[in-house]
Amino acid sequence: MKREVRSAASGRKKIPLPAAKSGGHSAVGAGPAIQHYQAALLLLQQGKYEKALAALEKLLPEAPAEIKERCQMYISTCRRQLERPNLAFATPEEHYDYAVSQLNTGYYEEAREQFNGILAAYPGADYAFYGLALLDSMTGRAQECLGNLSRAIELNPKNRLQARADNDFQSMVDDPRFTELLYPEIP
Question: Is 48 exposed, middle or buried (0-12, 13-18, 19+ CB in 10 A)?
């Protein structure tokens, strides 16, 4: 049974360690591999991505089938984390383009962090609210989508026209609140 646990110190999600298999069903010699795997995951949880990456890459060729796919996934995670600190953006628009690229490739948590980073530095960045609204629509967060889109329109009324034509809001088209936001009654 896996549980999601967050570290009290960092608030990061802890990665569940695989339980040792009982009844003699694990591969012969898998014990040391599982121990190395657990040690690599501990490094990953601690944010020591370079060491975790090295440990996982060393383990991968000899890893039992039951953890090989997870090793590959965590290797990708380490590589992404190691690339992040090198990010520097000349303009908020460039930062936005990067956030949209994360959104388009399915890295939703990273995209959300990037959009929120833009808003932390530029609270009036209507395009960041619009990006969050898109993300919320794509991830099924209707209430958040409406709030962010409303703020984007408030800051820049042209966002209303943009949203009317944007296919990424497809999940919202049946919501009457969305329709009211995009097509308000003219007094």
Answer: middle
Summarised one tens digit per residue, pLDDT across range 11-55 is 444 455 444 443 333 444 457 888 999 999 999 888 788 899 999
What are the contacts of 95-98 at 24+ separation with CB within 8 A? 96/125, 96/127, 96/128, 96/131
Tell me where in the chain the CATH 1.25.40.10 domain(s) lie: 89-182
- 93-118 pLDDT, tens digit per residue, is 999 999 999 999 998 998 999 999 99
Query: Which residues are paired to 6 by β-bridges?
Result: 13
Encode burial over 154-183: b for 16+ CB neighbours within 10 A, e otherwise: ebbeebbebbeebeebebbeebeebeebbe
Class of CATH domain 89-182: mainly alpha
CA angle 88, 47, 102 (to 5 degrees): 45
- C-alpha 77/C-alpha 75 separation (Å) is 5
For residues 116 and 96, is the Cβ–Cβ distance under 8 A? no
